[in-house]
Design a protein that fits this description.
The protein is 35% helix and 19% strand. The chain has 167 residues and is of the alpha+beta class. It is globular and about 45 Å long. The two termini are 21 Å apart.
Length: 167
């Protein structure tokens, strides 16, 4: 059973069209969006998340889109002044299927235990991405959008995440 439908999607920035009549169905499991830099991968995720509005067409995630879909731009500074536990608590409040047992396993597996008392701005780019990834995977959201999930992440954490994705 599909978890998302994209129908006749159109979007562009000014005269630069990224999508014209894009139609796709997303099924449970890992869906990989591939393409070179500047080809629209992040824009498509922002459209799916509702951060951007399409010029035409529609996107149907079903149900309460906010609790059905997890998306945080890994470059965001929105949470930088928050402590990691406060960030996790905020995300827990947004997602009814948030799983604290999964979060605990991810915090340990991603080697975040020693950072848990810090604020996000104190983390390296890779550690901050690992915090966002832990929240995403613990959210229980049927649709989880991950933009360049392995960028700036150490090899042991990449190996651990591959196991979580069953790739």
């Amino acid at each position: 059973m599909p978890i998302a439908h994209i129908q006749a999607l159109g979007f562009g920035y000014g005269d630069h069209r990224l999508f014209d009549n894009l139609t796709a169905t997303i099924h449970p499991g890992v869906t990989f969006i591939q393409g070179g830099d500047g080809r629209g991968k992040t824009t498509l995720m922002r459209l799916l998340a509702g951060e951007l509005k399409p010029d035409s067409g529609q996107i149907d995630i079903g149900g309460d889109a906010r609790s059905q879909l997890f998306w945080l731009d890994p470059r965001t500074e929105m949470f930088d002044q928050m402590g990691i536990n406060d960030f996790f608590s905020q995300q827990r409040a947004l997602y009814p299927l948030y799983d604290d047992a999964v979060l605990a396993r991810l915090v340990t597996g991603l080697d975040l235990d020693s950072h848990i008392h810090k604020k996000l701005f104190m983390l390296s780019t890779g550690s901050k991405r690992k915090v966002l990834m832990a929240a995403a995977l613990a959210s229980g959201a049927p649709v989880t959008l991950l933009d360049m999930p392995f960028a700036a992440i150490d090899k042991p954490s990449k190996d651990f995440l591959h196991g979580q994705f069953r790739l």
